[in-house]
Design goal:
With 256 residues, the protein is mostly helical. It has helices at 6-71, 75-97, 105-124, 136-217, 235-255. It has a single domain (9-192), classed as Four Helix Bundle (Hemerythrin (Met), subunit A). The model has no long low-confidence stretch (mean pLDDT 80).
Length: 256
């Protein structure tokens, strides 16, 4: 039968402790890595949509300024600003259209497209030199209202993605708590196991040595063997046997 040496016992105990911490560490690292990838992907997509949507709002405001210039009779400046803003709006819109990540987001995109086309018809038609020039009532009831409709549609898209980012943050927070649980459990388990290991060392290492020390201390010459009563089958038991063998040899030599 194989002897369970102290070295082997202690080695296996620490090996188990290391294995527990290693498994918990690997699980935590894996969970945090997966969490990081998901978080980065979701936030980047939402942030891209929000950024381009704000570019669309800025473009709309520039177009609105261009329309006001047209109403003042400044055809060249008005058309230059409007055409530039229109190109910027379309570029931002194309990015948003190809970056749909949220459920139902395509409906927001279609709504923006439809309302922008309605708004665009107002300033595509001639303004300078027509009855529309300097007509504030026409601007207020037609152009400005349609401008506000498009802006509201774009802002709704921004709100959708901002709410999604908020929900994602809450979800990530919950997942982060779950990700650190293996680490917490492993620390608690390591503490419990350390106490058990301390008990093990005291019982199977320290206490037998104390027994052996006491047996040697109170050894009487008329005794043939130490009265240590060590029940283990390890190096301490071997030490006890070696001392007893030594005592037997000494007694035999003295009796010659």
């Amino acid at each position: 039968m194989m002897k369970k040496t102290l070295k082997l016992k202690i080695y296996l105990s620490f090996l188990l402790l290391i294995a527990m911490l290693a498994v918990a560490g690997v699980v935590s690292i894996y969970e945090f890595h997966k969490l990081s990838d998901n978080l980065q992907s979701l936030i980047e997509d939402n942030y891209k949509t929000i950024k381009e949507a704000k570019n669309m709002v800025e473009s709309l405001e520039r177009e609105d300024s261009g329309v006001l210039l047209l109403m003042m009779g400044e055809w060249e400046n008005g058309r230059t600003i409007i055409d530039s803003a229109d190109n910027t709006f379309k570029k931002a819109f194309d990015i948003v259209k190809n970056n749909i990540t949220e459920a139902g987001e395509d409906k927001y995109i279609i709504n923006i497209k439809n309302k922008y086309e309605v708004y665009k018809k107002e300033w595509l038609l001639p303004v300078v030199g027509t009855s529309k020039q300097n007509d504030i009532v026409w601007y207020k009831n037609n152009v400005h209202q349609k401008f506000l409709d498009v802006k509201e549609a774009v802002n709704s898209l921004i709100i959708l993605n901002e709410e999604s980012m908020h929900d994602t943050a809450s979800t990530i927070k919950d997942k982060a708590h779950r990700a650190i649980m293996p680490g917490i459990v492993s620390i608690i388990a390591a503490l419990i196991f350390s106490l058990m290991l301390s008990f093990f060392i005291t019982r199977y290492f320290v206490h037998p040595i104390e027994q052996l020390v006491q047996a040697v201390k109170f050894y009487e010459p008329n005794q043939k063997l130490l009265n240590s009563n060590i029940s283990s089958n390890d190096e301490i038991k071997q030490l006890e046997q070696s001392i007893n063998n030594l005592l037997v040899r000494l007694v035999n030599e003295n009796n010659r």
